[in-house]
Specification:
This protein is mainly alpha-helical and 164 residues long. It has 5 helices and 4 strands. The chain has one domain. The strands form 2 sheets. The protein has a two-stranded antiparallel ribbon with strand order 1-2. A two-stranded antiparallel ribbon has the order 3-4. A hairpin with a 6-residue loop joins strand 3 and strand 4. The protein is elongated, with a radius of gyration of 18 Å. The model has no long low-confidence stretch (mean pLDDT 85).
Length: 164
């Protein structure tokens, strides 16, 4: 991948790792998970900005390749920067989705953490693109929204935070 495509994603994946490492025992780990998701979202925005710049710079006949979670359609005559950027966009969205799922799997341990998670879930969702639309619930292929699992997670965490 070219530096243009890799740098924003790699930099923001490092931020995600950094924020996840901040979860110190005796502190609510949800704050680090929120920070990791913020960093992943910043990574998505950075690579989309780079993608838009390439769309402006390159002629259409040099940017016909497409990459998605379902696969790649690579046109051999495309600019390699375009192909790398397409892959980086998919990777950035994947990192953001992983951070969103981590927010569901890391239970808040304090009332302040529950409040921060709920506020962040609303504030971060400015364009309805931040949270995964459907997540698998079981091996049967049943799906639910990210918000469903958020409510489930908070409902499980809340009694423990009130008792603490």
């Amino acid at each position: 991948m070219s530096d243009l495509a890799v740098a924003p994603v790699a930099r923001h994946r490092a931020f995600v790792d950094f924020f996840q490492a901040l979860a110190v025992p005796n502190q609510d780990p949800i704050f680090a998970a929120i920070g990791a998701h913020r960093a992943a979202t910043a990574g998505v925005l950075a690579i989309i900005e780079a993608h838009n710049a390439l769309e402006t710079e390159l002629p259409i006949d040099k940017r016909r390749s497409s990459v998605s979670v379902c696969g790649e359609e690579i046109v051999a005559t495309d600019d390699p920067r375009w192909i790398d950027c397409q892959r980086a966009v998919v990777l950035a969205w994947k990192v953001q989705d992983e951070a969103a799922v981590a927010l569901l799997n890391i239970r808040p341990t304090t009332l302040a953490g529950v409040t921060a998670l709920l506020r962040y879930a609303v504030e971060a969702n400015v364009d309805d693109q931040v949270w995964p639309a459907e997540l698998l619930t079981d091996d049967a292929g049943n799906r639910r929204s990210w918000h469903h699992f958020l409510v489930e997670s908070v409902a499980a965490a809340l009694p423990k935070t009130v008792m603490a």
